[in-house]
Amino acid sequence: MDLNLLLVLQLGGLLAHILHLTSALEPYDLLYDNGVDAFSRGDYDSVVRFMEKALQTFSQVRNTKVRCRLKCEDQHRVDGFFNTDLFFSSVLRRAACLNHCIEAQIGTQSMHKISDDVLQDFHRRIPYNYLQLAYRKRAFSAGVKLYDEGQYEEAVALFEEALTEYYKADVECRALCEGPQRFEEQDHVLYRYGLFELVSDHYTQLLHCKHECVRDLATRPGRLSPMENYLPLHYDYLQFAYFQVNKVEEALSCALTYLLFHEGAEFMTENVEHFREMTGQDGQPRQEAVQYLLRHKQELELLLIGTENMGVPYTEGNYWNSFGGRDDANRIPSGTDGWMEYVPISEKKNTSVTVVQELREGGPLLYDSVHVVHNSMALNGTQRVVFDDVISDRECSELKHLAHTTTIAGDGYRGKMSPHTPNEKFEGTTVLKTLQFGYEGRVPLKSARLFYQISEKARKIVESYFMLNSTLHFSYTHLVCRTAITGQQDHRNDLSHPIHADNCLLDPEANECWKEPPAYTYRDYSALLYLNGDFEGGEFIFTEMDAKTITASIKPRCGRMVGFSSGGENPHGVRAVTRGQRCAVALWFTMDPLYREMERLQADEVVQALDNQHHWNQGQINPKDEL
């Protein structure tokens, strides 16, 4: 072969290799970190660029792994082998196929080994928080909305689409389990077992991952807890929607399918009996659900054996969670005369025991100086109010001075100085801490006691105005100031505090608020007592559940207090503070005495002890101040 030709071929091969390397995907954890860094610098154009690229790469890596694993599984099947060598030959060839397939599309796999923390962020859709992108509306949520509007024909189509997408997502979720696995109780670096124990160990972990797809697919992006009864609810909605459009055979099939998940559920058993009477047929449940549950049961049996071998306890999760059905007034069709009556339901959604309160407002204000500026009607909502002159200018000034002396950066925000936005600094303190400072002579004790007294005054006003039958207890009390950081206020489009609800996780896309951890689900009412208004921005805003449509805006000023119920009916936030410092007493209340603020109880004891001391007189300066 001609030497020049050989050199050309070698150079061509080298060039092709270089082009392959340069075309490889950038690791999405690197892109994500770059986006977070850009956000902290205020370089929002770069944030969008890096986060969009990170999400695109994450999706491409995930889809590549799914396609390659399904392709290689089909090419090198391991079922039906009774010869050990043939079994492992297929396993080895599948592994080689998988490596070649993935690296051909995304480059060297070692570049895409991502830490568990970053993976968790992507699974919870945290990059979307930086981009402020809404989640794509699911067919199921859209179907529920149409169902609630009585558009049953359209709802049926969307629920069927949602089921198709669910089973497709289940296949993908299970395929992604065929990667590295590890139980926390096992230290594989020191693993000393033989071949078949190792195979059993890894396969058990793979089974566990696949088994948990039921939970993963029922968990909304960014949430920790799965939706109650998620997959069975599809069939519950469908059985009634099909009945509404006179497709009784389909309704019967869906009702029987629901009973596969909840055998003996009374309301659905009655539906089945009624549908059978109408059609004259016994009906059959849907085969995809029959096969799904059969596989689920077989996996559980193997999991119990495998985890016992490993010495790791396994408890089957309550995957279907609730016998509750749809959250509407049309659960059970009854009667056989051609006209249907509907028995309203009383179950579902929140299984916690709560006292149902009649929503009222307009009770006595208790203090002559206090007056209502805006009630719920004026604020375009429910259970919300604005008071003025709750405290005087002198009291505002004294509390603000107390804040400047006692607040600590990041207090109340797990030590984060800028918990909601990098453009503002947050400092806070509690009633107990200020009383301790007062007793030690670091601040006037009367100022610390004023904080204690003012918070109690606010509690009484809220409790009386909303005419509550139960006592309001303090859940958390915080004297907090947020300060605009100089040099970081140009072209701000963020909020000082993003739109949220106080006792549930706001899901703007679904127009839902999920009462589950990490939300403070026990909080019932909230209040904000402002100490000043000499700053720019910082308006308190109420919105619709879409977190976009503003229904009311309140400008803080000394002595003004906003009070409202803490649930999804009152999403709220704070506009950016672009100059100066905004100080307020933030209060959250609960009607459940089990969730009383422990620091408040301790503060009560401190005040009682001080009252009992010989040197305590109203208005007297702390003797330690004179030292």
UniProtKB/TrEMBL annotation:
A Pfam family it matches: 2OG-FeII_Oxy_3
Residue ranges constituting the Fe2OG dioxygenase domain according to the UniProt record: 477-591
GO CC, alphabetical: endoplasmic reticulum
EC nos: 1.14.11.7
UniProt cross-references to SMART domains, sorted A to Z: P4Hc
PROSITE patterns xref list: FE2OG_OXY
GO molecular function, one term: iron ion binding
GO BP terms in the entry: collagen metabolic process
Enzyme class, UniProt record, top EC level: oxidoreductase
Family stated for the protein in its record: Belongs to the leprecan family.
Name this protein carries in UniProt: procollagen-proline 3-dioxygenase
Biological source species: Astyanax mexicanus
